[in-house]
Amino acid sequence: MHPDTDLVIQLQSLDQKIAALEKEVAALPKHIATIEKALESHNRKLEADRAALTANQKDRKRLEGEIQVHEQKISKLKEQMLGAKTNEQYKAFLHEIEYIQKEIRKAEDRILEHMTESEPLDANVKKAEVALKQEKVVVEEEKTRARKRTAEDQGFLDQHRTQRAEIVAKLPKETVVIYDRVRLKSGGIAIAEVIDSRCQACRIMIRPQYLQDLRKGTELMRCEQCGRFLYINSPISFEDVAAKVG
């Protein structure tokens, strides 16, 4: 096996770790934004329920005030009715009293409706207040964990990038250029093992002569189909080589 093969395997392992860490670092702010958005949505719902409950209570007080005013009018009309001098005047007072009594009944019916509506609203508000308080605690804990995880990931990223630079410095520039180009277009896999005469990345059969040259290990060779670097009959596993970078 060519002496640079181990370095390319280590480089690929580092790049995979770096990619995973970068993905996680990028995902954490999105995760926090999602849970904060959910919290804000629940807070808006609570505020809407509070506003509805306040409006309900305000309307009930208004209706109760109207009933009180109507009752005072009826009391005055009854007093005035005692001084009615004609039958027509007496009937007029009765008619006005009946009209006001109907208005009172309408207001009372509306009050009953408001009371029925307020019960679930009040229950929802109390339940939502408790849930929102708990959710805020969870969100803050999640944000703390995310900040800690981001800091840890950033530390590992710095470490891996330093190791990557060290490996790149040991490899020929042309090899690194080819490696980076192939890795970017091949889903992060720039080197693959040959097993049973097949490239394990693209599964294409390797020509016998090409396979023989690969076994000699005199140069880094690439798959004629997918362009990835190849290695064969590694004395240790890919995982063991990759483990050299931690």
Report on this model:
With 246 residues, the protein is mostly helical. It folds into two domains: 17-169, Helix Hairpins (Orthogonal Bundle); 173-245, no CATH class. The protein has a four-stranded mixed β-sheet. It contains five helices and four strands; from the N terminus they run H-H-H-E-E-H-E-E-H. A hairpin with a 6-residue loop joins strand 3 and strand 4. The mean pLDDT is 92. The protein is rod-shaped, with a radius of gyration of 40 Å. Helices cover 76% and strands 5% of the residues.
Q: Based on helices, strands and strand pairing, what is the structural class? A: mainly alpha
CATH topology of the largest domain: Helix Hairpins
Order of helices and strands: HHHEEHEEH
Strand count, sense and barrel status of the largest sheet are: 4 strands, mixed
Q: So what's the overall shape?
A: rod-shaped
Report the helical percentage.
over 70%
> From the 3D coordinates, which CATH architecture of the largest domain would you assign?
Orthogonal Bundle
Indicate the radius of gyration in whole angstroms.
40 Å
